[in-house]
Design goal:
Blueprint (H helix, E strand, L loop, with lengths): L2 H6 L18 E11 L2 E9 L4 E6 L4 E6 L2 E3 L13 E9 L3 E8 L4 E4 L3 E3 L3 E9 L16 H12 L24 E7 L16 H17 L4 E5 L9 H10 L4 E8 L10 E5 L7 H11 L1 H5 L2 H13 L6 H24 L8 E3 L11 E8 L3 H8 L1 H21 L6 H9 L6 E3 L6 H8 L3 H7 L12 E3 L2
Parallel strand pairs: 1-5, 11-12, 11-13, 13-16, 14-15
Antiparallel strand pairs: 1-2, 2-10, 3-4, 4-7, 6-7, 8-10, 9-10, 14-16, 17-18
Helix pairs in contact: 3-10, 8-10
The structure holds zinc ion (ZN).
Length: 476
């Protein structure tokens, strides 16, 4: 679609920022409108002031992200979601202190075009984004929608929290108390390769796929023996699973963490040691990480899943600026957990690099789930090949991976988890503050902390039910 065509569908009605109070921000987002025309859906972001903007799309789940520099939001833009079946929800939050990010959750993947920001009225500006393939509210080929993990988590929480889970936020009656869910933290353990893909092969014919499956079972057993954790394996036998299939399993299980186990290969038989990798936004941190990502990602070629690789190409094109909040947070989480795992492995095995490496492994590209890839050792090194088969060595390594991931969650337990509950108990039940995250509602937070919505609103002097992501609430 050409920009010229955009003009023809522009709104006649111009909404100008209503005499906004001067603020420290260069611009304000005053409204978001949705217009339908000619099989397209146009999003009109109206602004007072002219910020720098950046619009990009992400999938799994499908969403469009619009960033506005040095901008604050004053209009209630969330209602735009009701104007198109294509739009599931509109979320927004501050970013990098002064910037504003708006995330449009879409019912399916679309292509889009951004018109240059233009002046409307005396001091207003409009950013127009036209979504194609979503114009008709009826009969669109709706693709299978992967529910966002946040929604799934909220639903799961609601399910666990007995019948008193849908209190109206406006209600002034005290809600019956609900108990803390004390749920298990779900860890998905992925044994790399499998089936027709043996992975690396040692000088004495030991397959990577074999030793990593043994270790994966040990790691899962370790988690399953620990209260507050539940582990699932992506494979429990010698089968081939495409890389994207592995992260899909993690999503289906609503995993809090994903860890993929591998054994390294090198041309030199003297290369040895373990490495820990997290996903990178900006490509690999070292040449060897780049090379490794390439060889591990090739696993999908062996399986003949060419379609999945094009997704990877797109990811590469979008890398860096095109990652949204959840992805950035996930990478930071992954790196933090990676450091914990790294420190533990360091105690039991030689470490190849002095830090957590970052690389673009397809298997780690699940935007919502913190993930690590652990190269347990070099199967191409004869002595490590032998060690990797030893039960005691396998167990030592997996105890270290377990301890690292556990340490991470002890520091930052999900609020509805048993670990969080235990931490709160240890603090004498003091749960003074809570940071709002995406998908939270007043009722879900009230349920989580076993307080009434009214008490929650009073403690925070809330006059409406609207919460901001990142907002800190006092828990009464
Ligand atoms: Zn591997």
């Amino acid at each position: 679609m050409r920009v010229g065509a955009l003009r023809s569908i522009r709104a006649l009605c111009v909404i100008v920022g209503i005499a906004l109070a001067q603020s420290a921000f260069a611009a304000t987002l005053t409204s978001l409108d949705v217009k339908h025309a000619g099989g397209t859906t146009a999003l009109e972001f109206d602004l007072a002031g002219k910020p720098d903007t950046n619009v990009f799309a992400l999938d799994n789940p499908a969403r469009l992200v619009a960033d506005f520099s040095d901008t604050r939001k004053v209009g209630a833009i969330e209602a735009a979601a009701s104007k198109s079946a294509l739009i599931k929800a509109v979320r927004s939050g501050p970013r990098n202190q002064n910037d504003l990010r708006v995330v449009i959750d879409l019912s399916h993947v679309v292509t889009f075009e951004v018109a240059p920001i233009r002046k409307i009225g005396s001091d207003g500006y409009r950013l127009e984004v036209v979504l194609e393939g979503g114009g008709s509210d009826e009969g669109d080929p709706i693709e299978a929608i992967i529910r966002s993990r946040e929604n799934a988590a909220t639903e799961a929480l609601a399910k666990r929290s007995s019948s008193a889970t849908t209190p109206r936020a406006s209600s002034s009656t005290r809600q019956p108390a609900v108990t803390h869910p004390r749920r298990d933290i779900v860890v998905v353990v992925d044994a790399g390769h499998g089936g027709k893909d043996p992975g690396a092969v040692g000088p004495h014919g030991v397959y990577e796929k074999t030793v990593v499956l043994q270790m994966a079972k040990r790691l899962a057993a370790k988690f399953n023996a620990a209260p507050g954790f539940k582990a699932y394996l992506t494979r429990d036998r010698d089968v081939f699973i495409p890389l994207r299939g592995r992260t899909r399993i993690a999503r289906d299980r609503h995993a809090d963490f994903f860890v993929s186990l591998h054994a390294d290969a090198a041309r030199s038989s003297s290369a040895r040691g373990s490495s820990v990798f997290a996903l990178s936004q900006h490509g690999a941190t070292s040449e060897s990480a780049r090379w490794l990502a390439k060889s591990e990602n090739n696993s999908d070629l062996i399986g003949g899943v060419g379609g999945d690789l094009s997704l990877d190409d797109k990811d590469e094109m979008l890398r860096g600026v095109l990652l949204d909040l959840s992805m950035t947070a996930t990478i930071n989480d992954s790196l933090a957990a990676g450091t914990d795992v790294f420190r533990q492995i360091e105690r039991v095995n030689r470490i190849r690099h002095g830090r957590v490496e970052q690389a673009g492994f397809v298997v780690l590209k699940s935007p919502d789930i913190p993930s690590l890839l652990v190269e347990t050792g070099f199967i191409t090194n004869p002595s490590e090949e032998r060690l990797l088969q030893q039960a005691s060595h396998q167990q030592q390594l997996m105890n270290a991976v377990y301890a690292g991931i556990r340490a991470h969650f002890e520091r930052q337990p999900p609020p509805d988890s048993l670990l969080a509950w235990q931490r709160d108990q240890a603090r004498g039940g003091a749960r003074d503050e809570y940071r709002v995250s995406a998908g939270d509602t007043l009722s879900s937070i009230a349920g989580r902390f076993n307080v009434s919505i009214l008490a929650l609103k009073q403690a925070n002097r809330l006059s409406s039910d609207v919460l901001r992501v990142g907002q800190i609430l006092n828990i009464p």
